[in-house]
Structure formats: structure tokens, C-alpha cells
């Protein structure tokens, strides 16, 4: 399945038209005549790069993860990759359509060269994105835990009770698009943020999410326990502590069971501490 997706994307890249297209041209410089060929080129190249990065970086996390690569874990990873690759393709397509057909109508769209933004803009842009995604990310995730939304959408992601780094984007298509892309694009419509700055911040989110699902020592917001116990640690630790949803071991005297390893009593690695 993955090889079919990758070779199709590779073929699309090879047969690009004679005009030189750039991955840095998101199409928003041409409001009156958004270029569909550039759109297809962007979708193909960014999803190819995104999927390659996803497979490579998640594999490094998994290689360093002390959990045994037994049949159960490998089956879990295969399922995560199936959802994850589809999700990356859909997220890229959604964002590129936004940059081609919505972003040009934003009042600062002509101010689009990254050089015109400057370091100060980069600084407050990053700060704004951090605060914005911390607050909205937490609440959108909590909303996804409401009945119907959980049943039909978010339960896909929670079917991975002991995820790996590959599982960070293993979600229902609606979830990834609303929880990440829509939140980021709304920010771009509020203050001038260049798409490359968004991409930079998106990379930060991606690595952070991979660490969270890997469950190792760099799981800063203790997201692995969100998968083990469902109704704790929805987002950034600051938000969970403020709204009283942070994991507290006293509330969970019966601990979640590790299904990859029979006996974890002597294990001291960070991921095993999540089960204690
Ligand atoms: Zn959840
Ligand atoms: Zn998760």
C-alpha cells in the first residue's frame, strides 16, 4: 500500500510540466488565477516529503524505544502507518488548497516574501502560534472526547492504547485536519504569519507529537498516559494542570497493563514508568 502511494507520488513529481515549480511557492502570489498544476505539484511533493520524514523519524524513535519488536507491536505499527500515511496526504492536500484558494483573500497576502517578514515578526509569530495551539489544541481535543465525536472520530486514534511514534498521526481524517491544520491556518488569518513559519512550527509540533506517542523520556506532556487512561493529559501540561485534567496516580490505583512485555517490575526505562 505504502509503496503504491510513494511510487504514484514519485511519478507525479517526475512528470512535472516544463515550467519550473518551486515547493516554496504555495500559490498565494497569484490570487486571480490560482494555478492548479502548482497545487498538484505542491500536494505531491509535500506529501512525499512528509511521508518519508514520518517513516524515517518515527523509525528512529522506535529503534531507540526499549519495547520488544514482537508480533503484537509490529502489527500495531503497521496499522498506525496505514492510518498515518493517509492522514499526512490528506493534511497536505487540505493545507495546499487553503494556501491556493483561501489565503490569497487574506489582507496581507501580497506581503508574502519571507524576507519581508523579519526576525521580530518571526519571534512574535512563533510565540503567537505556541500560545494559540496550546489553548486551542487542548480544547479541540477535549471536544473530540464528547460522545458522538468520540464514537465516530476520535475513537480511531484511541484504538491505539499503547501507541508508538508512528501513531502520532494515526487518526480519523477529520481529526488531524481540524486539530492541527485548521488551528494553524486560523492563526494565519488573524496575524501575518508566513506559510514557511507555519511549516517551521508544524515541524516542532510533529517532533513533539512523535515523542509523546513514543512515550519515552521526551514525552514532555505525558501524552502516553492519555492513551492508557483516556480522560487525562489532553494537551500541554500547563493546560491540564490549570483545568484539573492532569494525571494523578492516586486516582488510578489499578494501573494499565503493558501488553508488549509480561513482567515490567524490574524495568526502569521512562516508558515502563508510565505503567507503574
Ligand atoms: Zn483523546
Ligand atoms: Zn495521541
Automatic annotation (TrEMBL):
Keyword Signal: yes
Signal peptide: 1-20
UniProt keyword terms in alphabetical order: Membrane, Signal, Transmembrane, Transmembrane helix
Main localization, broad class: membrane
Transmembrane intervals: 39-61, 81-102, 122-141
Localisation per UniProt entry: Membrane
GO molecular function: iron ion binding; oxidoreductase activity
Domain spans labelled Fatty acid hydroxylase: 127-245
Protein name: Fatty acid hydroxylase domain-containing protein
Native source species: Paramecium octaurelia
Amino acid at each position: 500500500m505504502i509503496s503504491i502511494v510513494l511510487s504514484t507520488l514519485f511519478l507525479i513529481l517526475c512528470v512535472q510540466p516544463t515550467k519550473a515549480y518551486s515547493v516554496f511557492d504555495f500559490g498565494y502570489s497569484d490570487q486571480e488565477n490560482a494555478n492548479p498544476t502548482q497545487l498538484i505539484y505542491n500536494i505531491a511533493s509535500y506529501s512525499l516529503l512528509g511521508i518519508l520524514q514520518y517513516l524515517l523519524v518515527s523509525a528512529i524513535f522506535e529503534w531507540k524505544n526499549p519495547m520488544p519488536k514482537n508480533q503484537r507491536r509490529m502489527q500495531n505499527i503497521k496499522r498506525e502507518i496505514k492510518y498515518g500515511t493517509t492522514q499526512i496526504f490528506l493534511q497536505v492536500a487540505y493545507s495546499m488548497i487553503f494556501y491556493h484558494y483561501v489565503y490569497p483573500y487574506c489582507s496581507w497576502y501580497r506581503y508574502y516574501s519571507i524576507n519581508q517578514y523579519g526576525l521580530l515578526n518571526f519571534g512574535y509569530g512563533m510565540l503567537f502560534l505556541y500560545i494559540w495551539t496550546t489553548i486551542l489544541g487542548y480544547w479541540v481535543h477535549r471536544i473530540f472526547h464528547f460522545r458522538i465525536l468520540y464514537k465516530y472520530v476520535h475513537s480511531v486514534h484511541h484504538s491505539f492504547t499503547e501507541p508508538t511514534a508512528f501513531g502520532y498521526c494515526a487518526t480519523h481524517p477529520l481529526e488531524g485536519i481540524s486539530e492541527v491544520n485548521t488551528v494553524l491556518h486560523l492563526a494565519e488569518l488573524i496575524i501575518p504569519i508566513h506559510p514557511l513559519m507555519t511549516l517551521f512550527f508544524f515541524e516542532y509540533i510533529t517532533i513533539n507529537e512523535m515523542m509523546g506517542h513514543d512515550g519515552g523520556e521526551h514525552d514532555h506532556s505525558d501524552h502516553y498516559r492519555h492513551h492508557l487512561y483516556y480522560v487525562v493529559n489532553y494537551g500541554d501540561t500547563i493546560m491540564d494542570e490549570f483545568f484539573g485534567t492532569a494525571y494523578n496516580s492516586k486516582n488510578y490505583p489499578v494501573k494499565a497493563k503493558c501488553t508488549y512485555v509480561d513482567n515490567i517490575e524490574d524495568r526502569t526505562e521512562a516508558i515502563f514508568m508510565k505503567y507503574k
